[in-house]
Task: structure prediction
Amino acid sequence: MNLLGIGSRIDHPEYGKGVVTNVSSKHYWVTFLENGLETIDLNADFEVIEAVEDEVDSVSFFDVERSLVKILEKWSDTHEKVAMADKWKDGKLVLESGDGTANKDMPIDTFFHKIVMVRDRIRVMEQKINSSKNLDDQEKVDLQQYITRVYGSLTSFNVLFKTKSDHFVGEKSKG
Result:
């Protein structure tokens, strides 16, 4: 078995695609696109996409993390950092069933991230509608009204956001 160096790219069956960011005597530290930093055994089952040899401890985790953040900012729907209200940090969301079946809970950070992703994707859709050459002005106005109503439906989640400028805003009341 050849030891992979820092910067090697792999595809793990459970965690997806990632980059080796550190190597210890028993583990690879891998930053995965979907799952963040995970440690996996050196002999774990994964596919090597691109192997880098003789590169151990030559790149700091900070450098890799900074590079990964830049890549994600460039290629994902999210371009800004959105802060969650401090009181919700390290909290959890609990869904209790009404029929006595198992409850569901998740870290509120995960839920918040999903809400922010929905908001960002709606904004991208809004931009695409407004710049579309295939829609006439009336169709754009009609679709914009639907988007405004979607934002209005999501205002319940504004309590999660730290700053008001990140809030969902629906139709303003007239009066």
